[in-house]
Every structure is written in structure tokens, then in C-alpha cells.
Amino acid sequence: MTFRLTTANPADAPRLTALVNSAYRGDSSRQGWTSEGHLLDGQRIDEEGIREMLAVHDAAMLLCLRENDELLGSFYAHSTGNKVYLGMLAVAPTSQGQGVGKFLIQGAEDYGRQHGCTVSKMTVISVRPELIAFYERLGYHQTGATEPFPTDPRYGIPKQPLTLLVLEKPLQSHRLNKQLNRFP
């Protein structure tokens, strides 16, 4: 399958909101392995939250599209100093297991490299061992640091106490894929 990587703009907010919520919450999320519905009630994000993320300086929401512009997945990348923070990897439940997530992770890491970052950082809910193992297979390691889970109900209402684990990966410089040169 051929994927295309691009960056989102504010007009993409409605379809991004639908994608992210379908990947993380509700009945449709149960078709994939990334569902958090058993851990949290409510939505994962709203359109306003997406627009806020899109407005952050030195950040981009990366989109994985099929040739027909079907949105398969998204991933947020925000460069700060020598680190690129990656968050909210979302893959359509029916497209999971097809390499979309790995494609987006590579694109986000390349985004970080292009912005001078030497480390990639992310946070993962501590009670998601299958997700942590996925990232570890891609070179990420647990730092031992933790962060509190957000308390803003617009990102979900925890059904149990939750903590975020900090994972990092050193970014080795390598030749960037030419399609990434359009990143701001």
C-alpha cells in the first residue's frame, strides 16, 4: 500500500477530530488495538483542541493519506529545543496493522531531525503495556520519568487513576525523505 505524508491545516480539523476519536474511544475504536475506551469515558479531543494544536509554533499535525486522499492516520510533532515531542498517534481502526503508525512515527522523527532535534519524546498511559512494547520495538525506551494524566475532561474522563510514562529515543541523523521538505 502506498502512503502519502502531508501536514494538516485548520480546514482538516473536523476530519481529524473524527479520526482521533474513532481510534481512541467509542464502539469504532474496538475494531483496532489502540482503544482507550476501557480506561476513559468521553471524547479524546474536540475540534477546538485540534485547532489549538495546529496553531502551536514549531508544531505540525502529520497526516497519512491514501492516494485518493482518504485519511488513514495522524500524529502530532512539536519541536522544542533539542527534543521533538510526539503525541496523539491515531490510526483509523480499519487501517491498523498496515504500517500506517510506523510510517507516521518515521515522518514525525524526520520532522524533528529537520528542526534540529536530537531526541524524540512521547508519553504513554502506564497501563498500556502493548502500546509501550510497540514503541520499544521502534527504539523508544522508558526514562523512568512520569507525568500526571491531564485532568481536563475535554480529553476524557479516567475510569481509574492514570499516569503517563515518558519514553524517549535518540534521533540519529540520516538523509531526509524529500517529501518532508515542505514542513514549516
From TrEMBL:
Transmembrane stretches, start-end: none
InterPro entries in alphabetical order: Acyl_CoA_acyltransferase (IPR016181), Bact_Acetyltransf (IPR050832), GNAT_dom (IPR000182)
Organism: Hymenobacter jeongseonensis
Name by which UniProt lists this protein: GNAT family N-acetyltransferase
Domain N-acetyltransferase: 3-172
Keyword Magnesium: no
UniProt KW Acyltransferase keyword: yes
Superkingdom classification of source: Bacteria
Signal sequence extent: none
Keywords from the UniProt entry: Acyltransferase, Transferase
